[in-house]
Amino acid sequence: MAKAQLDSLDYKILQTLSTNGRKPFLEIARECNVSGAAIHQRIQKLMALGVLRGSECLINPASVGYDTCAYIGFFLKDPSKFDEVVEKLKAIPEVVEVHFTTGQYDMFIKLYARNNDHLLHIIHEQLQGLGLARTESLISFKEVFKRQLPIVENKE
User: Where is each HTH asnC-type domain found (predicted)?
Assistant: First the structure.
């Protein structure tokens, strides 16, 4: 994807939304000294360009019964089956991220499970049938922090 041409107002909007994605458009408009309509139009433009990809409500997985977070590296039997494997992974609701990677793994996923027994069930019953040569799993004890990328205007 080509880099979007953004101006100072776009960057100010992105900085604001990256710290509070629920901030009302009128508050953003006041901070930027422009109209609410201008903010609405700019946010629509940023979405159309693919800079903003919507908004989401972040749920604490442990608060809804998902106490185990695991990262699993896949070694595929047939690496040409990437797209097929991705489609099958989309059908497993506990899988929340899928990455194609360089290095030792063909793919790397993040998933949440209720506990280690549930994780083992997911691995044996849902992942093993995907055409994997083998996997390597890492269990996260605790997410220490997570944040948005810094939004800094590029003045090239």
Answer: 6-67
Residue corresponding to tokens 């901070």: 31
Enter the pTM of the model: 0.82
DSSP string, the chain: -PPP---HHHHHHHHHHHH-TT--HHHHHHHHTS-HHHHHHHHHHHHHTTS---------GGGGT--EEEEEEEEESSGGGHHHHHHHHHT-TTEEEEEE-SSS-SEEEEEEESSHHHHHHHIIIIIGGGTEEEEEEEEES------PPP------
Per-residue pLDDT of 89-148, as tens digits, reads 999 999 999 999 999 999 999 999 999 999 999 999 999 999 899 999 999 999 999 888
- Alpha-carbon distance of 133 to 80, in angstroms, equals 13
Are 68 and 114 contacting, i.e. CB atoms less than 8 angstroms apart? yes
